[in-house]
Specification:
The protein contains 12 helices and 7 strands. By secondary structure, the chain is an alpha/beta fold. The chain has a single domain, classed as P-loop containing nucleotide triphosphate hydrolases (Rossmann fold, 3-Layer(aba) Sandwich), CATH 3.40.50. It starts with 8 loop residues before the first strand and ends in a 5-residue tail after the last helix. The structure holds adenosine monophosphate (AMP) and magnesium ion. Adenosine monophosphate binds next to helix 5. Magnesium ion binds next to loops.
Length: 294
């Protein structure tokens, strides 16, 4: 990793297969968090200093999104796996934008989107993974979580909604849960959209000033912004405790929306290509019966 490259973004030179991704973008690829990375999550790593021209990244993203659509078709038909992308990030970090742009590439028939708000009274009577397990994508489906069970070690921790004796054991519970999903065919990838304090200010201000965005603003958003450093600590520990081989975390520099979409689309293409989904062969009985098809 060269100086100036944010932690978690490689400058390796591997290629996407048959790709149409220009060489100058080789360096831009997410790398999984390792337990002992000791990420700082400072403002500097929410952006990348010197980027290739914008049009190059926009065009490459379009190529990746087309590739995603083709991969999804085979993935859906193949049906041996599910894919789950977990999106976490502070308010206005771009979770909705990723779903709109990157997931917008997919055929909606094969997509499951789930968003997690404060638990209902019924959900609070169950263990914290109860509501999550129900919306894990089924085989053949590509799912995305807008927030997730990680709120139970983030918001719950920072807002003091449960004591440490309750939230701390959840790191191990989450790892066991995700391992079990992975062993049952669910491919899990997790992205923390890392936005700087300055960029969050700009985006929240826009929500305050633009009547079409007012509805997105909650009182809790202001309170959470005031607890910036506590959230940073909670995110750091979450990343180091819960980035596993079966379900790795990626930190996405998210101040720049164009770059953010490119990085996530690329990671998803890499993930789906590694599964190498195949269209199932025609059933022998159908083939036989189809002999006389006129
Ligand atoms: P939004 O993503 O803007 O719709 O906001 C959802 C809100 O629900 C955020 O403030 C989250 O912190 C909150 N939330 C989600 N899950 C939980 C949870 N398990 N416990 C407490 N708050 C949560
Ligand atoms: Mg919000």
């Amino acid at each position: 990793m060269s100086n100036g490259t944010p932690v978690g973004v490689s400058n390796g030179s591997t290629h996407i297969k048959g790709n149409g991704i220009p060489r100058e973008l080789d360096a831009l690829r997410l790398e999984a968090v390792h337990r002992d990375d000791h990420l700082k999550l400072g403002s500097g790593s929410a952006r990348i200093g010197e980027l290739p021209p914008r049009e190059v990244i926009v065009e490459a993203t379009a190529t990746l999104l087309t590739r995603l659509a083709a991969l999804q078709e085979a993935f859906h038909a193949d049906g041996r796996h599910a894919l789950l992308l977990v999106l976490q990030g502070r308010d206005a970090s771009g979770k909705d934008g990723v779903i709109k742009t990157v997931y917008g590439a997919f055929n909606p028939t094969g997509v499951q989107v789930a968003a997690f708000g404060p638990p209902t009274p019924l959900e609070l009577k169950h263990d914290f993974l109860w509501r999550v397990h129900q919306v894990v994508p089924s085989l053949g489906m590509i799912g995305v979580f807008n927030r997730s069970h990680y709120e139970d070690v983030l918001a719950v921790r920072v807002r003091n909604l449960a004591p440490e004796s309750v939230w701390r054991p959840r790191f191990a519970q989450i790892n066991a849960f995700e391992r079990s999903l992975a062993e049952n065919g669910v491919i899990i990838r997790k992205c923390m959209l890392h936005v700087s304090r300055e960029e969050q200010y700009v985006r929240l201000k826009e929500r305050l000033d633009d009547p079409r965005k007012n509805w997105k603003f909650r009182l809790e958003d202001l309170k959470d912004r005031a607890r910036w450093d506590e959230y940073t600590d909670a995110y750091r520990e979450m990343l180091s405790e819960c980035s596993t081989r079966e379900a790795p975390w990626f930190v996405v520099p998210a101040d720049d929306k164009v770059l953010r979409n490119f990085l996530i689309a690329r990671m998803l293409v890499d993930t789906l290509e590694s599964v190498d989904p195949q269209f199932p062969a025609m059933d022998a009985a159908v083939r036989e019966a189809a002999r006389g098809f006129t």
